[in-house]
Amino acid sequence: MHELSIVMNIIQIAEEESARNNASAVEEIELDIGELSGIELSAFEFAWEQAIKSTLLDGSARKINHIPGEGQCIECEAVFPMHRLYDPCPVCGKHYITVTKGKELKVRSLVLN
Q: Are the CB atoms for 71 and 35 separated by under 8 Å?
């Protein structure tokens, strides 16, 4: 379950930013998670609930921005929604795709106290 290591990295980011800003708690954290990031959301939720106990994130509000997948075909330049990394272009059927949205996995913001 790589979701646990991702949550642990998020906790580390929150702790480092809190220390850098002399904060004692995180009031809110906002995350961007793309549809094509490879994150299984139910596993992420479980890992989150277990890992944040007794950390600066325990009790903080969490907002997740779900970023839909989008690709652009290198052959015909069509832009289209993607739900899986290996979806072909719906216009020409080719697999020469550049993912333009949906692979995001980042901490967008922290509200510190």
A: no
The 10 Å Cβ neighbour count of residue 25 is: 14
Question: Encoding tokens for residue 100?
Answer: 């333009």
Domain ranges of the chain: 2-112
CB distance 56 to 26 below 8 Å: yes
- Cα angle: 108, vertex 110, 113; to 5 degrees: 175
Helix, strand, coil % in the chain, rounded to nearest 5: 25, 35, 40
pLDDT tens for residues 15-71?
999 999 999 999 999 999 999 999 999 999 999 999 999 999 999 999 999 999 999
Please give the Cα distance from 31 to 53 (Å, whole number). 18
CB 91 within 8 A of CB 76: yes
Amino acid at 60: S
- Domain 2-112 -> CATH class: alpha beta
